[in-house]
Amino acid sequence: MSHPFERENVDIAWCPGCGNFGILKLVREVLDELALEQRNVVIVSGIGQAAKNPYYVDANMFGGLHGRALPVATAVKAANPALTVVAEGGDGDMYGEGGNHFLHAVRRNVDLVHIVHNNMVYGLTKGQASPTSLRGFRSPVQVGGVVNEPLNPVALALALNAGFVARVNIGGAKLAREVLKAAFLHRGYALVDILQPCVTFNPLNTYAWFKEHSRELGTEHDATDREAALRRALETEPMPLGIFYREERPTFGEQVRRSTAPLHTLRHDLKRLQERFDAY
Ligand SMILES: Cc1ncc(C[n+]2csc(CCOP(=O)(O)OP(=O)(O)O)c2C)c(N)n1
Ligand code: SF4
Ligand SMILES: [Mg+2]
């Protein structure tokens, strides 16, 4: 069944079987289920296979530089707080090239949904290791296997006191849908790290591998307990899935803005501005 966020007549440039197809479907359906209006949704991305996702969603989008989706998304939300803003991209884009922006978007608590397609590889550039590639992962560049410690985005976001932190597996669509919906309803920065197979360049982290090496957090997990969330985030075998932590607190926009009106509707008082300059 087609729905408003489905962009028609578009050639999708992903390999058959890629986990990105599941994420595209999920994003479109969740936006639709939340009854958001297309004109009020902006998806900002960078460069990569994952970063193509907003080109296939019928909403507003901005395709920026590699790793730079978060600062652009921050600016979009600041300019018009009424918009639903998403920053979307891959593990290389968001945790590698854009790693610095990741840290500071969390600290600012910008009201946006941060969706990361985590396939543990650079897909677009043909299979080099990414920051989340596991030790021993062999690639055309890391021929002897990755020697670096993999970046744990969930633990990192929790350490920085993010207000909403979650991980899902696109192979488990039911949980992914519930969690992504909750992220959109959260007021403040919300990280949803999505485990996504790259069927062409990551022969290690397949659909079967992600299924075998992940497990739901379980009903005993208390998502208001940050210490418990951090302990669970450090578990890697299996990797827990679900909402690790959620807590609403004042957002960046709420703390710095005097007005909630979109910037383009504000009129400048030139006389007052001149008086201020003169006072300097
Ligand atoms: C500044 C800059 N450095 C490097 C590149 C090359 N490059 C393009 S996409 C990419 C990695 C993409 O990996 P990821 O974000 O994990 O996306 P995927 O393709 O796996 O979905 C790199 C290194 C670039 N486009 N710009
Ligand atoms: S290279 Fe990997 S991530 Fe890119 S479209 Fe193909 S399967 Fe998907
Ligand atoms: Mg990737």
Q: How many beta-strand segments?
A: 8
Global structural class: alpha/beta
Could you tell me how far the N terminus lies from the C terminus, measured between alpha carbons in angstroms? 61 Å
C-alpha geometry? globular
Number of helices: 10
**Assigned CATH class:** Alpha Beta
Radius of gyration: 19 Å
Largest sheet: 8 strands, mixed
* Overall mean confidence score, pLDDT: 96
Ligands bound to this protein structure: thiamine diphosphate, iron/sulfur cluster, magnesium ion
Strand order of the biggest β-sheet? 2-1-3-4-6-5-8-7
Overall tally of domains: 1
Strand content: 15-25%
| CATH superfamily annotation | Thiamin diphosphate (ThDP)-binding fold, Pyr/PP domains
CATH architecture: 3-Layer(aba) Sandwich
User: Any idea of the CATH topology?
Assistant: Rossmann fold
Structure description:
- 32% of the residues lie in helices and 16% in strands.
- The protein is of the alpha/beta class and 280 residues long.
- It has one domain (20-279): Thiamin diphosphate (ThDP)-binding fold, Pyr/PP domains (Rossmann fold), CATH 3.40.50.970.
- An eight-stranded mixed β-sheet has the order 2-1-3-4-6-5-8-7, with helices on both faces.
- The model has no long low-confidence stretch (mean pLDDT 96).
- The structure holds thiamine diphosphate (TPP), iron/sulfur cluster and magnesium ion.
- The site of iron/sulfur cluster has 11 residues, from loops.
- Iron/sulfur cluster is lined by residues 14-15, 18, 20, 49, 119, 123, 198-201.
